[in-house]
Amino acid sequence: xxxxxxxxxxxxxxxxxxxxxxxxxxxxxxxxxxxxxxxxxxxxxxxxxxxxxxxxxxxxxxxxxxxxxxxxxxxxxxxxxxxxxxxxxxxxxxxxxxxxxxxxxxxxxxxxxxxxxxxxxxxxxxxxxxxxxxxxxxxxxxxxxxxxxxxxxxxxxxxxxxxxxxxxxxxxxxxxxxxxxxxxxxxxxxxxxxxxxxxxxxxxxxxxxxxxxxxxxxxxxxxxxxxxxxxxxxxxxxxxxxxxxxxxxxxxxxxxxxxxxxxxxxxxxxxxxxxxxxxxxxxxxxxxxxxxxxxxxxxxxxxxxxxxxxxxxxxxxxxxxxxxxxxxxxxxxxxxxxxxxxxxxxxxxxxxxxxxxxxxxxxxxxxxxxxxxxxxxxxxxxxxxxxxxxxxxxxxxxxxxxxxxxxxxxxxxxxxxxxxxxxxxxxxxxxxxxxxxxxxxxxxxxxxxxxxxxxxxxxxxxxx
Amino acid sequence: xxxxxxxxxxxxxxxxxxxxxxxxxxxxxxxxxxxxxxxxxxxxxxxxxxxxxxxxxxxxxxxxxxxxxxxxxxxxxxxxxxxxxxxxxxxxxxxxxxxxxxxxxxxxxxxxxxxxxxxxxxxxxxxxxxxxxxxxxxxxxxxxxxxxxxxxxxxxxxxxxxxxxxxxxxxxxxxxxxxxxxxxxxxxxxxxxxx
Lengths: 464, 195
Ligand code: SF4
Hints:
The structure holds two protein chains of two kinds. Chain A is α/β, with parallel strands linked by helices. Chain A contains 17 helices and 19 strands. Chain A has helices at residues 5-10, 15-21, 48-57, 85-101, 116-122, 154-163, 188-199, 214-217, 221-229, 245-251, 261-269, 316-325, 345-348, 351-361, 379-387, 390-397, 446-455; strands at residues 24-26, 33-36, 39-42, 67-70, 104-106, 131-134, 148-151, 165-168, 172-179, 207-212, 238-240, 281-286, 293-295, 303-305, 340-343, 371-374, 400-401, 422-425, 440-443. The termini of chain A are far apart. Chain B is an alpha/beta fold. A seven-stranded mixed β-sheet of chain B has the order 4-3-2-1-5-6-7. Chain B is globular, with a radius of gyration of 19 Å.
């Protein structure tokens, strides 16, 4: 902490520093800053022990009006109740806790239910310059709006419930400058997978990343959310993108958008990193070198161009990953056959993602023997997709068009891979067993997932 | 929270990098609504392999985990910390920790100790050649001591004080409710509310 408070306010600041400084409730030398939290998102998995903690100490929720809950991780994506009694008990606990502490909940069947990181932006609750937290690492998604958004553990969930603040050491700042424009056929998902391959799963550790440059400005809000979503897979505390017309157009007219719109936009325009502000670390990425990307290993940094081959292992970790994945170095990635294709999650379960999938599947059929699950990120996404006829396209192609939830992104609900089964998945984690014990995951973009569904092998739309 | 000052115990060498929290405790165990008894889920997939280090009875009762770089990546699940503690670990040593895991560990009193790759490798060599060797993690002196090795580690004064006193963060913050109320009074009115 070389700079003093007064030096920081007069000198040029990054967007992350501006948002941080605007939320400091208390700053004392030698202690973490006490930071105010504008929005606390809750789901059933990481909250029950936090509510128990409140009850055990006789504490209450300080700001239920800055808190919102949804059911997502455990919910089945076919109609009907939760069959698994343990999953059901967890969802029931959330319902009781929200009732007892006066928190707004969007339960299964509700028109605003969905994955926690899909519903916040969709309702207009996620806005530029806010601090947003959730007991879920992919809270980084909300940084796409120029919010400072990060995942927290259950002890911190309890802390935010009780105090609406968190004691935090200010992370360092990092710029990822994406230079040039994305080539045709290369999506936000390919971009972020390429970035993680370049900087590694620990590359952003201890930093708040700001994504900058022409290729980033050219992304839609959905694309920006995809990029920020996976910041955590590069080890970063949070990812952010400066708000601009794209952001304002997305937010305008949403349920929780500000009443005094002009004043809000004027304030949001001030958030961008000042000319001359310095980042602790700068990484440059050449957008022109990117192409459809796919992971071959068991962490998101183990990726390669789909047009290439399974690489030679560089160390013991690579060897272990190849063994788990059942792959041999030198095999063209396009020759890798899959059993399942999963399209959905908080990374790629939004309307634009589903449109990209429909564009590929329209007039085509899913390959024989391949299970294809298409899962909207929220009930609202499902309704919008159906209004455009996307649901019909998916079903005509032979894919399963499901209800909203986290689904096969993680194995907490009935949608799972069997041991040894291989998937192409638009989710964010290819860890061992993430999609079911023994399951093997290749992370891909929605368009690649759709093309893979058609051939049964890892495929880009241009290959069809 | 249990106080942490000095801990001495035997070590388990986990020679793996990128040990993500899905490996430390798989999603299936996250359905529970209680806060104890997660030891059965710790590394549950890897424990099916008889050659996995935790299945080696020479390491029974060990309390210090010595792991490769990027320990605790992935999910924010604090259950990963609970599982390590419920199994009996008091400290984890690694060349690099994921931020959220490190934060969660410090909340619960499981000490994450960051040492250089070569010091970690030396501790792993020691635990492999002599599983009975004891390692001391001294938070007071900010030092790790083992036969043939004494190294210091970094931790900020505030975090160290909180761990040594076993203080609850919420209790500390609630001393500043006046500051919080003052901040709330000055928040811009345009900020959204959920109700
Ligand atoms: S979709 Fe996957 S990554 Fe996103 S919140 Fe759900 S489980 Fe987590």
